[in-house]
Amino acid sequence: MEFVTTREELRTIYKTPRPTDGSIRKELKALDGHCRSFIGKSPFVLIGSSDGAGNADVTPKGDRPGFAAVLDERTIAIPDRPGNNRLDTLENILLNPSVGLLFLIPGMNETLRVNGDARITVDAALREPLAVDGKEPQSVVLVTVKAAYMHCAKALMRSDLWKPETWYDRATLPTLGQILRDQLALADSAEATDRWLDEEYKHTMW
Prior knowledge:
about 30% helix, seven-stranded antiparallel β-sheet, Pyridox_Oxase_FMN-dep, 2 domains, Pnp Oxidase, Chain A, Split_barrel_FMN-bd, single chain, 8 helices, alpha+beta
């Protein structure tokens, strides 16, 4: 199998967009009103990061719509709620601040992409207003925006992501307890693991 190894070779396969094309012109250097409104309505964002050695990671962050706070046209604050404590994204940010964000709004096929540099803070003045039911985030990721633009609908249209009639019947898919039992060779039953997970979700959501 042959692989594409140079940008020049890649551009013989794909057209090079012109500076006047919409795909180039739509890139903003700061958040305009549409971007701010989109983030304010989004309950879900994917954060792409990588460490100093180039190992990549994408992690989901979700909460009530508008959980990611736009502080100004160049700054987004993303609260970090309790998780599995792997800290893949946070440790990556310490080594390489460059991140890519993908914001989604359920039912909307267009997405918002934001690229920038991230920092981590535990400043109480920022954590307090991002609290949910009195529970502050453990830390906050501050992203300084370098580029922001709307992404067209093709990927979500092709996938029918928001159409329930295309979704698998959840009962036909394994539970996380079943998957972990097999992957980790757990002594506990899948049912016991699922019950434990349910309890964890109840008490450690925020």
